[in-house]
Every structure is written in C-alpha cells, then in structure tokens.
Amino acid sequence: MHSIRRSLLALATSAVTALVVTMAPLPVSATSLVPPLPQPGLPGLSLADSNFYVPPSPLPSGQPGDLVKTKPITSSLYPEARATRIMYLSRSARGQAVAVTGVLLTPLTQEPNGDHPLVVHTPGTRGLGDHCAPSRQTDLATLNVRSADYSTLDHHRFLLHGVSVVITDYLGQGTPGVPEYLVGSSEGRNALDALRAAQQVENAGLSRQSPVGISGYSQGGQAAAWAAELQPTYAPELDLRGVLAGGVPTDMWTEVNHLSGNPVGAGFAIATLVGLDTAYPELALASRLTEEGRAAVDRVKQSCYLEDAAAFGTMSISDVTQPDVLTDPAWQRAYDRSLLGTRKPGAAAYVYHGTSDTIVPFSQGQQLYASWCARGADVTFERIVGLEHVAGAALTSPAGIAWLIGRLRGRADDAGCRVTSTP
C-alpha cells in the first residue's frame, strides 16, 4: 500500500508540475516586467450563465446565508450528482453585506427531503480572475484548463458516501470585484454562509438540521480553519461535526515572507497584497507600487493558479512595492488579522501537513495543532512524510476524509489530541 501511495503522489506531483511548465509564459526575472497574459481562446460563459454571476442591485435584504438565486448545471463533472449554481448573501472582512457564488453537488441517490449530511469545500488557490471561479470549473461547458479543479477526487469521495458538497467561490471570485485572497475572516464567513445557503436549496435533501462538516487544503485549509473558529459565534445554529484542514497557512505574516521571492510562490505572495488591499483599502497599495509592481498586480488580478505559479520567477515583495510593505507596521498588523489558533474551533478537527512542503512550511501545521490543543480542542494531526504541497492538493488525506465522513455519521471517539504519521 505504501508503494502505491508513493506512486500516486509522484504521479500527482509530476502531472501538476508538467501543467505549470507547459502553461508558463516567457521566463521572468526579478528585474524584468511581467509579460502580458496569453489569450488561449478558452470556453466562455453563455449570456444567461454570465448574468447569473451579476448580483442584483441593490442586494436583497436578508441574513448572511440567505439564498439570492439558483441555476441547475446540465453538463457537470459529476455524473453521480445534481449540480446547482447558487448565489447567497455573506459578509466581507469588514462585515459588509456581499453576494457570493458557489455550487451545490447532491448525490442522485439522495431523497429530495430530509436532513442528509453536507460538507462545505473551501477551495485552495484558484487565482483572482473571475474565470478561475471553482463553480465555473464544475460545468464542462465553461471549464478553464488554467484553473482546473484539483479537488474533484475529494468531491467524488464525499458524494459516493452520500454526503452533499457545497463549494464556495469566495467573495469576488466569479462575481464582480476583486477577491479578498487569503484574508481569513472573509473566507471563513463565506464558507459558513455557503452551508446555510445549501440547506435552503429546494429538493436537495438538506435542512437546517443537517449535520455539516468543513474541508479544505492550502488556501482552503486556512478558510476551513477560520470557519471552524468563527462558527461558535457567527453560525452557532449549524450542527458542525468536524473540520478537515490540510496544508494550512496558519500565520500569514510568516507565510508571505516565505513566499516572497519563492520560485513557485512569488505570484501567490503578490496575490496576497491584492487580497489584503481589497479587504483593507486604507493600506493604499497602488501608492506603493513600482513600475514592475503595477505590471505584476495587473497580471495577477487576471490570472489563474498555473500562471501564478509559473509567471513571476523569483520576484519579491520589495520588487513590487517601495517602500517594501513588509516593513510597514500597518501591513504587518493587517496580515496578523488572519492569524489562526487564537480561538477554539467549534468541532473536533483533523489537521494534516506534508513534512516536505516548500510552499506552506510544515511548521505552520504544527503551529495550528499546538494552538488548538492548548485551547482544549480535540485535534488529530497527521504528519505525511515526504509529501510536498502540490501533491497534497491533488491527494487529500484519505484518512482525513474517512474521519470526517465518520463524524458526519455520528462517530465521536476521538477526544483529546494525537499525532499520527503516514509514510
């Protein structure tokens, strides 16, 4: 079994790496302007589907999680499920009312009435462009190869066990505006409100009594962990049974310093500047951008994750901003607002992290585990020996998924804190 797992990890890593290489534009040094985006002529949304992503103006009055509209997807990636686009009310990092989109997947075998289990999937990085939105990748007619959903196997696993999956696009991903990328409070609210919205979809076999879980990796791991910490006060009515969070950037201040100049992570570091400035416009990013920085920011606002991984070379935050925003206490405090581990999660948690992760260091997972345990949470921490970040995105912990499905089915035999290792 171990050799099979190692083979799968190698295949997943090589496949994603090959995609990054083949999709990459011209090489970029830290001192050259970022080349323009290629125009690959990818599928676009029909007028009707494009209109779906435009929120009504003004927004309808209502509570966070209230449904705004729904639309079936007739050509989805999931033949075993009904796929429904959703738009729902949520809150930004500053607590402002916003519209967020996503997609609900319900097993075809599921009865249309009842209170069946539901998981919100909080996606990992997809990119800031609207065409990168996860809900658009669910539809075969609009799938974008530059933002292909690397979590489809996870979704299939849940669906085949009778668990519905709602996937949030996050604020500004799909809908007009710029995403609040890697801003934890915004992502956590968007996730919890997606659960509330899914429970209101007619004939989905869900209700407000449905047991719910949260699952995500990387950016999605951060969102999942934030949702877990917010749930007791933001959405206490949800019957939260468990939280699965992998590759979590627990401390964003540490993480952005690690990504800056990183040959694979530089684009993601630049995207965090955009996300933070969107959430907190008083940071005034535009006034700090260099010529190269303006080109980089324009590019990252339009690109999906493959370009972000390949197009920015070893560009650092000091190349993008002058004075360097990482030396600015206001920016440091803004990143610190996304620090995890400051509150006890609302349910038991399963945290997993690869020991060879070079994008989100293993120490970040250790930090979250220790912080939650210190606050009295029940936490399992799986060390996956030799796992790199990209492979982890493609192959979520099978033990973690089985654990979460068990929790949704009523199992609760995991009190306390424990560390496991997977070769």
From TrEMBL:
InterPro entries: AB_hydrolase_fold, Lipase_secreted. Transmembrane segments: none annotated. It holds the Pfam family LIP. This is Lipase family protein. It comes from Nocardioides vastitatis.
